[in-house]
Write a structure and sequence with these properties.
The chain is of the alpha/beta class and 327 residues long. It contains twelve helices and 13 strands. It has helices spanning 21-30, 63-70, 93-96, 115-125, 130-144, 159-171, 189-206, 217-223, 241-248, 264-268, 290-300, 313-320, and strands at residues 2-17, 33-48, 52-56, 78-83, 99-103, 177-181, 209-213, 226-231, 234-240, 251-258, 272-277, 280-286, 303-310. The strands form three sheets. A six-stranded mixed sheet has the order 5-6-7-3-8-9, sandwiched between helices. A four-stranded antiparallel sheet has the order 11-12-10-13. The chain has a three-stranded antiparallel sheet with strand order 2-1-4. α4 packs parallel to α6 and α5 (130-144) packs antiparallel against α6 (159-171).
Length: 327
C-alpha cells in the first residue's frame, strides 16, 4: 500500500533578473525581466509503508522543493500529491501530526534553551499523551546516547549532539512519514555512521516511510535499496540502487600493486590509466573485457597484488549528471 503518491508534480518559479549597475536599476523600475525556472518538472512516483528511499541529484535539481511540496510548505503549480491520504498543502492538523521534516541546515531546537524544553513543547504541539511521550523519549534518548546533554543549552552542544536532538524532536510524535534533507551534513565520519545506524533502526522498528536526500553517497549506499534520481527538475531514474550499477557502470576498476617499476605506456594498451604512482596503479577497463585484461596483466607484468572492482557509485552518479543519456 502506497503512503505517498505523486502524480505529474510541477513547481515553477519566476526569477527576477537585474542588469548590473545604476542603469540596470533604473531600467528595472520601468520593465522587469524574469527567467522561468522549472524547479520540479512533471515527476511521478509512489512510496509504500516502511520504504526507505534515497532521493538524489545535483545542487538545484529540485530535491528540497519536492520535499517541501510533500510536506505542505509549498503549493505546486500542477499535479497531485497524497501523503497518508491527505493533500499536504491543505495543512490539516490530522496530517501534520503524522509526518516530520528534518533539514540538516535548519534548526528546530530553541537555541538558548536545552533540548528537553523543545521536546516538551513538541509534545504539546502534537498532543502526544504523557505516557507515550515518556516512553518514546526514553527509547530515543537511549538509542542516540544523549542522556547527558538534554538539560544543556542547545547553543553549547556540538554539531553531532544537536543533530541527534533534532532527530528526537522530529520523532517525538512517532511520525508515519519522515522526510530527511541532508541529515548528516557537516558531521564527522563517526557521527555520520551513528546517525545512519539510527535511521536504519528507526525505519526497521516503526515501519515509517522515509525519503532521504543526501550528497553523501555513503548515506544512500548504507540505507537505501531504492533510489529516485532527479536532475533539472525531472525524475530520470526510479529503481533499485543495484540497477544503476548494472545499467550505467560499463567499466570496472582494476587496482594493481607492482613488484618492480614498469613502463606506464604499456599499461595504456590494456585500459585507461587513471593513476600510476609506483608501486600502485589504477585502470578503468570495459566491463566485458575486464577478465581478459586482468589475465594479461598477471601474465605480462610483475604483479604483487591485483583487485577487480565495480566503479564507485558516486562516480557513476556523477557521470549521469554530466551528460550521459538517461534512456
Amino acid at each position: 500500500m502506497s503512503v505517498i503518491r505523486v502524480r505529474n508534480l510541477k513547481k515553477y518559479y519566476r526569477v527576477y533578473q537585474k542588469e548590473p549597475g545604476l542603469l540596470g536599476s533604473m531600467k528595472s523600475l520601468l520593465r522587469r525581466k524574469y527567467q522561468p525556472v522549472k524547479a520540479v518538472d512533471n515527476i511521478s512516483f509512489s512510496i509504500g509503508r516502511g520504504e526507505l528511499v534515497g532521493f538524489i541529484g545535483p545542487n538545484g535539481a529540485g530535491k528540497t522543493t519536492t520535499l517541501k511540496c510533500l510536506s505542505g510548505l509549498l503549493f505546486p503549480n500542477e499535479g497531485t500529491v497524497e501523503v497518508l491520504g491527505f493533500t499536504p498543502w491543505d495543512r490539516k492538523p490530522e496530517f501534520q501530526k503524522q509526518f516530520s521534516l528534518v533539514m540538516g541546515q535548519k534548526n528546530q531546537l530553541w537555541w538558548d534553551l536545552p533540548p528537553i524544553e523543545t521536546f516538551i513543547l513538541n509534545r504539546e504541539i502534537y498532543e502526544v499523551p504523557q505516557k507515550q511521550y515518556e516512553q518514546t523519549l526514553n527509547e530515543l534518548v537511549k538509542i542516540l546516547e544523549v542522556e547527558e546533554v538534554l538539560k544543556i543549552q542547545t547553543r553549547k552542544l556540538s554539531l553531532g549532539q544537536r543533530m541527534k536532538c533534532e532527530l528526537i524532536a522530529a520523532l517525538i510524535h512517532s511520525p508515519k512519514v519522515l522526510f530527511l534533507d541532508e541529515p548528516t551534513i557537516g558531521l564527522d565520519v563517526v557521527m555520520q555512521k551513528r546517525v545512519r545506524d539510527f535511521i536504519k533502526l528507526y525505519n526497521r522498528r516503526f515501519k515509517s516511510a522515509i525519503i532521504l536526500t543526501s550528497h553523501n553517497m555513503d548515506d544512500v549506499k548504507e540505507l537505501c535499496q531504492r533510489v529516485l534520481i532527479i536532475d533539472r527538475g525531472r525524475l530520470v531514474f526510479d529503481g533499485r540502487l543495484s540497477e544503476i550499477i548494472s545499467k550505467y557502470a560499463d567499466h570496472k576498476i582494476v587496482s594493481v600493486v607492482f613488484s618492480q617499476e614498469i613502463d606506464p605506456k604499456k599499461l595504456a594498451k590494456i585500459g585507461q590509466v587513471k593513476s600510476y604512482h609506483f608501486p600502485e596503479a589504477t585502470l578503468s577497463i570495459k566491463r566485458e573485457t575486464a577478465p581478459l585484461a586482468a589475465a594479461e596483466l598477471l601474465q605480462h607484468f610483475p604483479i604483487a597484488d591485483l583487485t577487480l572492482e565495480e566503479e564507485k557509485i558516486e562516480d557513476i552518479i556523477r557521470e549521469l549528471f554530466t551528460g550521459k543519456d538517461y534512456a
